[in-house]
């Protein structure tokens, strides 16, 4: 009898482990209905399908809950965690962390997009590096046209190897710290009881990462980018308020005793930068409230703040001039394909307005290279046609295609196309009427996948075999 009980217990434990998701995706949301569907579908379209999406709504008053209820009816991997009180993104994420069952934890904002292979590639790299956390660079994009060019958060660093992130690196680069904007994936066992500070509404990510690193967590940054970071006026991190900076300064002061001597020196410089940013934001708030004298007094007492204020005014004036003289609209039709010699004989390809040549091997480009695809395809009116398996990969960097047509049968699609088309992509035949309501609904992210011919041997990837995330 005892042996039978042990067998049943072992079987139950095995079943529980088998049902455990590989990735728990945590998505906090407050009134993010405008971009919610595209963000959620980019998670559900992941090639690593064994995941759960914990959607922590922070007392939204828009259509967020209704939209999520409709999505949950179609995909059981999604769970809705509602709150009657708006407590901020940190509290929402903590509620989801308490419920997470995955081996890995991924934080995704409710207005951003993921490349369909992000989780598969990052976890593969993390296993090779024996990392506790793995991060990729962020590709910035805008809703429609913008005054600034998209690119990656860290710029074109030409980094080809994964880089281990230290607390000193996390403290660098200004008040907000660029690395604090990253969205790493964490091993859940290394997070343990670690949670976000709920008294911080902006910069809570940076503080969480610092505590993770100061406790010995091994975090690596890959040279690739699989996360598309949407920039728009409603973004919570668009502007830092003086009260937010006060919270960030207080949070860093609490961490200082855990730092080494060199780390404390960097933290001290960062504190000075945050204090300067706080004075600058106080000047902006005073100007908006027509409190001129306090602003002048602050600028006279702090020359560096005066210089930063002058630079801010110059950027605003330059932005207004660019809006008065907008850039010409980007090409309405784009072809994503390897060089011309390997294009299939497909009707219409010869008349494309612009051909974006992409490599035969996805790993031959870094995140900064793929960011250029995002830049040229982000206009809402853009039509995109992609060729072959690498074209399918390239589509993960297209933030806002309008529609294109599929001329082949489903059997000709590259592997993974069905999954993408079922999660936010759609197919419309060449004879479809785009004015039909069903067609407009389906045209959220419509692409044309044309089968690639037999391609030449792939060029070797610049990445070393030890750190390659996917074979070419």
UniProtKB/TrEMBL annotation:
Record-linked CDD domains: Glyco_tranf_GTA_type
Domain Glycosyltransferase 2-like positions: 24-158
Keywords: Glycosyltransferase, Transferase
Pfam families: Glycos_transf_2
Domain of life of the organism encoding this protein: Bacteria
Name by which UniProt lists this protein: Succinoglycan biosynthesis protein ExoO
Highest classification ranks of the organism: Bacteria, Pseudomonadati, Pseudomonadota, Alphaproteobacteria, Rhodobacterales
Xref: InterPro entries: Glyco_trans_2-like, Glycosyltransf_2, Nucleotide-diphossugar_trans
Organism: Roseovarius azorensis
Family in the record: Belongs to the glycosyltransferase 2 family.
């Amino acid at each position: 009898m005892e042996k039978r009980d042990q067998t049943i217990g072992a079987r139950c434990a095995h079943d529980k482990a088998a049902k455990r998701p590989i990735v728990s995706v945590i998505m906090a949301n407050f009134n993010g209905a405008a971009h919610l569907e595209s963000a959620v579908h980019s998670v559900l379209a992941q090639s690593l399908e064994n995941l759960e999406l914990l959607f922590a709504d922070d007392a939204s008053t828009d259509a967020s809950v209704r939209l999520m209820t409709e999505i949950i009816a179609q995909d059981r991997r999604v769970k809705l965690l509602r709150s009657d009180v708006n407590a901020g993104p940190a509290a929402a994420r903590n509620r989801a962390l308490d419920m997470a069952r995955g081996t890995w934890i991924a934080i995704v904002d409710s207005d951003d997009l993921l490349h369909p292979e992000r989780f598969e590639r990052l976890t593969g790299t993390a296993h090779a590096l024996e990392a506790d956390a793995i991060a990729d660079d962020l590709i910035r994009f805008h809703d429609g046209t913008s005054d600034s060019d998209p690119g990656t958060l860290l710029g074109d660093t030409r980094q080809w190897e994964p880089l281990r992130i230290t607390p000193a690196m996390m403290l660098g680069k200004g008040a907000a710290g660029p690395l604090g904007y990253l969205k790493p994936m964490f091993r859940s066992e290394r997070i343990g009881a670690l949670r976000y500070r709920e008294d911080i509404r902006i910069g809570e990510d940076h503080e969480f990462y610092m505590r993770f690193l100061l406790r010995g967590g091994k975090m690596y940054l890959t040279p690739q980018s699989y996360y598309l970071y949407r920039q728009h006026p409603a973004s919570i991190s668009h502007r830092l308020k003086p009260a937010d900076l006060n919270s960030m300064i207080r949070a860093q002061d609490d961490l200082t005793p855990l730092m080494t001597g060199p780390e404390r020196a960097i933290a001290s410089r960062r504190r000075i930068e945050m204090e300067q940013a706080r004075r600058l934001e106080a000047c902006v708030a005073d100007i908006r409230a027509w409190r001129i004298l306090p602003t002048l007094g602050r600028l006279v007492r702090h020359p560096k703040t005066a210089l930063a204020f002058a630079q801010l005014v110059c950027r605003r004036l330059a932005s207004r001039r660019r809006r008065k003289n907008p850039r010409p609209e980007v090409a309405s039709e784009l072809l994503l394909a390897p060089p011309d010699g390997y294009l299939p004989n497909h009707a219409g390809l010869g008349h494309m307005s612009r051909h974006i040549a992409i490599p035969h091997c996805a790993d031959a480009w870094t995140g900064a290279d793929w960011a250029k695809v995002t830049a040229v395809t982000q206009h809402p009116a853009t039509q995109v046609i992609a060729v072959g398996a690498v074209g399918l990969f390239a589509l993960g960097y297209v933030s806002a295609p309008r529609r294109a047509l599929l001329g082949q049968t489903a059997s000709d699609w590259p592997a993974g196309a069905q999954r993408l088309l079922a999660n936010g992509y759609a197919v419309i035949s060449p004879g479809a009427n785009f004015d039909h309501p069903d067609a407009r609904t389906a045209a959220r992210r419509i692409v044309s996948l044309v089968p690639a011919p037999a391609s030449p041997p792939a060029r070797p990837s610049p990445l070393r075999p030890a750190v390659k995330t996917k074979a070419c």
